[in-house]
Amino acid sequence: MLAVACTYFRGNRHEDVAVFTVPDHRRHRLALACVNALCEDIAARDRTPSWNCSVRT
């Protein structure tokens, strides 16, 4: 597995999304694909996804 996205925190109507990509495979839009799929799933359940982005080097 090179990238994964999951719900980090689930509130009453919102779900905070977390994502991780293996460092050697970053910048290939793998995280974006994972987050898009997860956000579609969250929205299909009538919930609101939220996501903050922080970059660690």
List the helices and strands and how they pair.
Layout: E1 3-10, E2 14-21, H1 30-44, E3 48-50
Parallel strand pairs: 2-3
Antiparallel strand pairs: 1-2
In short:
The chain has about 55 residues and is an alpha+beta fold. The protein has one helix at about 30-45, and strands at about 5-10, 15-20, 50. The longest helix is centred in the middle third of the chain and has 15 residues, at about 30-45.
Overview of the structural elements:
This protein has 57 residues and is α+β, with helices and mostly antiparallel strands. The chain has one helix at 30-44, and strands spanning 3-10, 14-21, 48-50. A 3-stranded mixed beta sheet has the order 1-2-3, covered by helices on one side. Strand 2 (14-21), helix 1 (30-44) and strand 3 form a beta-alpha-beta unit. The longest helix is centred in the middle third of the chain and has 15 residues, at 30-44. It is elongated. 7% of the residues are buried.
Could you list some keywords that capture this structure?
57 residues; 26% helix; three-stranded mixed sheet
Class derived from helix and strand content: alpha+beta
Shape: elongated
Largest sheet data: 3 strands, mixed
Biggest sheet, spatial arrangement of strands: 1-2-3
- Count of strand segments: 3
* Contiguous uncertain segments of 5+ residues: none
Cα radius of gyration in angstroms: 12 Å
CA distance, first residue to last residue? 20 Å
- Percentage of residues in helical conformation: 25-40%
Number of helices: 1
Strand fraction: 25-35%
* Mean of residue pLDDT values: 93
Quaternary structure of the protein: single chain
Order of helices and strands: EEHE
